[in-house]
Amino acid sequence: MIVDWPGVSIVIAHKDHADVLLQNLESMLTQDYPLFEIIVADDHSDAGIFEKLKNGLSIDRRIKLIQNAGVGKKQALNDGIHLAEHPLILLTDADCKPVSDQWFRSMVLAGGKQGVVLGYSPYEKSRGWLNALVRFETVMTGIQYISAALHGRPYMSVGRNILYPKHVIAETLGQGKFENLPYGDDDLTIQSLPEEVAYFVCYETKAQVVTQAPATWTSWWNQKHRHMSAGHHYQKKHWWRPGIFGIAMVIHWLLFLVLLFSVPAYRFMPVFLIGLGIRWLGYVMWTSSLGDKDTIKYYPLLEIQYAFYLGAMGMYTLFNKKKTWN
Predict the structure, then answer these.
(1) Residue 181: how many CA atoms within 13 Å on its side-chain side?
(2) Model pTM?
């Protein structure tokens, strides 16, 4: 048990989302934690939006607002991190809201000053199939990166909820060969950390931050395009596990379609059903911790569409690299 709670600096990169940020900051300012500050690093928002943000943030002395000295999210985060007064850095996004007032405490307790704490950030539930698919994909991604970290092979996290010792992240983010990429502030940064860095995970409900899901198929596609574009810069030792998982799932359903129209179903259906059942059961177990249990009943349909998305997005990003962070 930590007796002397270390100070935490929450760093948020922001661009043109003043209303949602001001709303979400209320739940951050009421966190049950003795010593923290919030640094909002603005990446050249519209002048009117920045002025609105400036006026809204002036109500609390624990909030600092700075303007990006360069261009892009990484530089904004870098500026905020180097300005931070406390030894722990908790990163999140402007559209994220803590599920409880124990977010800071839970993340610090998971790792203290010992290393990096990988958190989890689900999407808010709303009506529609797109929302169900977005939340399903988020759980599937969480299962993979959390499992890898628990087995001592971390390769990514989500920038919406991750805790770093300041000396670790300040020496890594925005440095090296990934410095000019407009994405990868979460996964590529994790992969660039020194090997001696310790990792912890914290995905209990009270440590989660929830965010709004993309409202249209186009916005979700653009978001996932940015995320998957970073995968082309993974080292082989980091790529092969999530890569093989995705390829295997795509091949599974492609093979299913081929066999369905060429071989009597009774000859192959049992094998496919067993494989599907095993993955379905694993998903059920993970949602007991990560949430989104309502998607369990739709698992087969969601997995089919998830596999299609992996194949289509994988091909798309081969020829179209994302050039901006938002």
Answers:
(1) 23
(2) 0.88
